[in-house]
Amino acid sequence: MEDLGFYEKGKAVEAIKNGETKLDGVRPINTSGGLKSKGHPVGATGAAHAVEIFKQMRGRAERNRQVKFDVERAMTHNLGGSGGTCVVHIYQK
Fold first, then answer.
1. Count of CB atoms within 10 A of residue 15's CB?
2. Which of 22, 35, 71, 93 is the most exposed place for a label (fewest CB within 10 A)?
3. DSSP conformational letter for 81
């Protein structure tokens, strides 16, 4: 979150503790629970990210993880292999 520029260095932990990244926070992150909740199938992770963002932006995510506001822009970030590959996608309505 800090390396992507969402928070200054050293500030992300405090933001998490304050609930800013929760589903109903000002900056929801990993609304599906991330890879720890779904696993990390090689090749399918990026597709899962895109599907989650599509659902969030259309208001179609499951009730327990749909953000509470209209999503105009979103981002996915995925690392591959040993971190040698990084892909970032920006989505906009």
1. 19
2. 93
3. T
Do the Cβ atoms of 36 and 26 come closer than 8 Å?
Answer: no
Q: Is the pTM of this model over 0.85?
A: no
The domain total for the chain is 1
| pLDDT for 93 beyond 80 | yes
Task: Give the whole-angstrom CA distance, residue 73 versus residue 70.
Answer: 9
Give me the DSSP letters along 38-92: H---TTTHHHHHHHHHHHHHHT-S-TTT--SS---EEEEEEEETTTTEEEEEEEE
The enclosing H or E element of 15 equals helix 12-17
Q: What would you measure as the largest C-alpha separation in the chain, in angstroms?
A: 35
Write down the pLDDT at residue 84. Answer: 81
